[in-house]
Every structure is written in structure tokens, then in C-alpha cells.
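Weekly sync, protein design subgroup
Attendees: M.S., D.O., the rotation student, P.L. (late)

Item 1: inverse folding check
M.S. brought a backbone from last month's batch and wanted to see whether the design step gives back something sensible before we order anything. D.O. pointed out we never logged the input encoding, so this time it goes straight into the notes. C-alpha cells as presented (138 positions):
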């Protein structure tokens, strides 16, 4: 079920810059106040710490994010993968949770090249090694 929330074109152009030129460590997206668009809330410079990323996710609310994660492959090499992170704080009220849940597919479909999704509902879920595993790290 779709909520009718549309993806702002800026989201796509900045995501492409992240994917192709590795411009950002992360991008955090939010649904606009009028509930019509998904827009960029924050971007992390390349090399930004994971703690900086998690500090930008609000308590009692929801957000989407794309995170650039360095993983270790089976062959022993390192590679960078983009992973979609869905932040839905357990303490958020039902309305935003439902709106974010029903709008997620619109953003995921627009952001081509992301295969994995990581769900976090509390601060304890924001574990970098778990996110790396989900992105394919061994």
C-alpha cells in the first residue's frame, strides 16, 4: 500500500552523487511537514563517524537513510556497499510509523542500486557491525 508521498528529485540527484562519486558517508531522508514529499534532512561528509550518523536520527520519530558501509568480502578484500536503513523508533506514535512504513517503497524503488535494508527500532539496533553483516560483510 502506497501513501502517495512522492520522492523529491533532490533525493535522487544527491543519492546518485553518493553512489557514483562517493560524495557522502550517509544521507538521512524525512517526510516533509505537509506529508507530500520525501526530502533530505542531513548529509554526512565522506569519512563521517557512525556515531555522527546515529546522533542525527531523532528519538520518538522515524527516518530513512542510506549509509555507505565498508565490508570485508569472502575473498578478504574490502568493498563499499550502500545499505538502506529504516529508523522507526519504538517510542514514535503510530501515525508517523504507518506513514513511513507505507512510503518506504517509493523511496527504495527510486534509489536504484541498493539491495539490502536494515531495520532499527531502538538505539541498541544501531550496531555498526550488525549493519556491516547485513550489507554482506563476513
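Designed sequence read out in the meeting:
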Amino acid at each position: 500500500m502506497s501513501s502517495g508521498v512522492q520522492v523529491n528529485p533532490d533525493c535522487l540527484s544527491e543519492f546518485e552523487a553518493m553512489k557514483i562519486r562517493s560524495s557522502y558517508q550517509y544521507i538521512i531522508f524525512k517526510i516533509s511537514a505537509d506529508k507530500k514529499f520525501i526530502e533530505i534532512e542531513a548529509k554526512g561528509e565522506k569519512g563521517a563517524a557512525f556515531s555522527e550518523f546515529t546522533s542525527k536520527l531523532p528519538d520518538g520519530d522515524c527516518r530513512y537513510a542510506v549509509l555507505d558501509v565498508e565490508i570485508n568480502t569472502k575473498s578478504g578484500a574490502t568493498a563499499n556497499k550502500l545499505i538502506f536503513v529504516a529508523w522507526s523508533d519504538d517510542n514514535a506514535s503510530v501515525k508517523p510509523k504507518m506513514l513511513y512504513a507505507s512510503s518506504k517503497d517509493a523511496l527504495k524503488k527510486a534509489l536504484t542500486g541498493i539491495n539490502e535494508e536494515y531495520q532499527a527500532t531502538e538505539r541498541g539496533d544501531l550496531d555498526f557491525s550488525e549493519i556491516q553483516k547485513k550489507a554482506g560483510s563476513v
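Discussion: The helical segments are 9-21, 50-55, 94-110, 128-135. Strands lie at 6-7, 24-31, 37-45, 62-72, 78-88, 116-120.
Action: P.L. to compare against the previous round before Friday.
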